[in-house]
Amino acid sequence: MKLTTMMFCCFMLLAVACSREDETTAEPLPPTPPGPSATPVETLPPNANYRPAFTGQTRINGMTTATAIRSNIITTALSAPWGITSLPDGRLLITEKQGRLRLVTTAGVVAEPISGLPAVNAAGQGGLLGLCLDPQFATNRMLYWSFSEPSAGGNVTAIAKGRLSDNDRSLENVVVIYRAAPAYAGSNHYGGRVIFDRTGNLIISSGERADNATRVQAQSVSSALGKIIRINRDGQPAAGNPAFSQTGARPELYSMGHRNPQGLAMHPLTGEIWQSEHGPRGGDEINRLEAGANYGWPIITYGLEYSGQALGSGIQQQDGLTQPVYYWDPV
C-alpha cells in the first residue's frame, strides 16, 4: 500500500518500540474493572471454515470499559511513518519509510531529517522500519534500527546501530550489525521490528519474503527468513539462545515458522515477548514467544491464499507446531 501523508496521533506512543525501565514515567492511572461482555467485534463471515484449536482463540466477545480515551493529532507533516520511540525528554523519534529519521515534539514541531543513515530499498514493503533506544541511551545515546538493505543478491532485513549526535542532527559511527540472510530480490515481508529484551539483548523480527520460493525457508533453520532473531548489541548470537536439533541451525535463531512478524512488545512485568504476525487471507496472529518454538508457517495457518484456495495441505494444527494465542479471520 502506497502512503503519502499520514496523520500522526499521540496515542501512537503506545507503539513505542523499546521499554526502558530506568526512565521516569508518569504515574499510571488506576485500572478500570472490566465491564460486561459485549458482542463480538468480528461479525463478518470468516474466509475459511476452520475450527480454532481451543475456546477463545478467535472471535471472542468485546469488553466495555469506563476508561476515558483521548487522541490528539500532533502533525500531518510526516510521510509514511513506520517506527516510533520516545526519548527520555519526551520527544518522539520516528522513521519514515522512504529512509528519513526525524525528531518530533509532542507539540507537533517536526525537525529536519537526521543525517547519517545507510541507504534503504523503499520499494514495496521495504524502507526504514522499526527502531529502539539502547537501555542506557541517557548516557550512550545509541540507537538501533531495522531497514531493508539493498545488496548484490537482492535485499535483506538488516539491523544497524549508531550514536545520536549531541546536537540531534546526525548519527555517528553507524555500522550494520546483522543481516537476515539469504538476500532475495523481492520487496515484501521484511518483518522489521526490533526491541530489547530484559537481558539486554536485541529481539528482531524477520519475514519470509512473501514469495513461494522463499516462504518455505520459514521452516529451515539454516535460513534467517521467517524467524525471530536474538542477538547482542554487536550483532552476535545472544548467550542462552535455544539449540535447534536440525543440521546447520543458525545460532541467532530464537523461534521459527513465522510469515511476516511486524509487532514485538515485552510484557513490562513478566518480561515475556509477545509478537503479532500478518497472515495471508485471514489468519493474522498474536503469539507469545517461546525459545525454540516453531509457529508453523507455512505448514499450518488459519488463513487462505489470496486466491481463496487452501494453503498447502489446508491444516491448522500439527504436533510439534505452536498455536497462536489468538487469530483473526477475516482481518
Description:
With 331 residues, the protein is mostly beta strands. It has a single domain, classed as Neuraminidase. Helix content is 2%, strand content 32%. It contains 2 helices and 19 strands. It has helices spanning 137-140, 212-215; strands at 6-9, 37-40, 61-63, 73-78, 81-86, 92-96, 100-104, 128-133, 142-151, 154-164, 171-179, 194-196, 202-206, 227-231, 253-256, 260-266, 273-278, 284-288, 326-328. The strands form 6 sheets. Strands 8-9-10-11 form a 4-stranded antiparallel β-sheet, with no helix packed on it. The chain has a 4-stranded antiparallel β-sheet with strand order 12-13-14-15, with no helix packed on it. Strand 5 (81-86) and strand 6 (92-96) form a beta hairpin. It is globular, with a radius of gyration of 20 Å.
Protein topology:
Elements: E1 6-9, E2 37-40, E3 61-63, E4 73-78, E5 81-86, E6 92-96, E7 100-104, E8 128-133, H1 137-140, E9 142-151, E10 154-164, E11 171-179, E12 194-196, E13 202-206, H2 212-215, E14 227-231, E15 253-256, E16 260-266, E17 273-278, E18 284-288, E19 326-328
Antiparallel strand pairs: 1-4, 2-3, 5-6, 6-7, 8-9, 9-10, 10-11, 12-13, 13-14, 14-15, 16-17, 17-18, 18-19
